[in-house]
Amino acid sequence: MDIKPILIVDDEAIVRDSISDWLNAAGYQTETAESGEKALAMVASKDYSIAILDVRLPGKSGIEVLKDIKLMKPYIKSIVITAFPSEGSADEAKKLGAVDYLIKPVLPENLEKVILETVEKYKLGKR
After folding, report:
1. Is residue 127 part of a domain?
2. Cα 86 from Cα 89, distance rounded (Å)
3. List of E strands, 19-123
4. Has residue 1 been placed in a domain?
5. Is residue 41 part of a domain?
6. Quick one: what percent of the chain has pLDDT higher than 70?
């Protein structure tokens, strides 16, 4: 697959590891972060195609991380996930350019569908 790694940001290890395992099994390369600050440090030093961001994170929220990623590397596409959906956070995520807003528990087939659509739509990895 001709895309850069996918960054998975969630403070719950079980969620991070599950998504990483699913995507690795589907042929994607993944890296994980448990906080927004760690994710931003990783983004500053490496390129990613997609960032999967939980809304509720310790420190910076997923929405704040999305804003910072857009400033640092606007070509990275973001998918926002949350167990606590709200119209406000969904609207803000979309306004900031998130390609989708998924409610946990995220099914592997739904996440992979969004990733495939994102890869196809933006032809990721061909910067």
Report:
1. no
2. 5
3. 30-33, 50-54, 77-82, 100-103
4. no
5. yes
6. 95
The answer to whether 7 and 48 have CB atoms below 8 angstroms apart is: yes
What residues are paired with 8 via a beta bridge?
32, 52
Q: Which helix (H) or strand (E) holds 6?
A: strand 6-9
Q: How many helices (H) and strands (E) does the chain have?
A: 5, 5
User: What domain range includes position 63?
Assistant: 6-122
CATH classification of the domain holding 62: 3.40.50.2300
Report the pLDDT averaged over residues 37-41. 98
| Structural domain count of the chain | 1
Q: In whole angstroms, what is the distance from residue 93 CA to residue 38 CA?
A: 20
Q: How far apart are CA 64 and CA 95, in angstroms?
A: 13
- 126 pLDDT above the threshold of 60: no
Does position 1 have pLDDT exceeding 50, yes or no? no
**Total-model pTM:** 0.93
- Tell how far CA 63 is from the center of its chain: 11
Question: In the chain, what are the helix, strand and coil shares in percent, each to the nearest 5?
Answer: 45, 20, 35
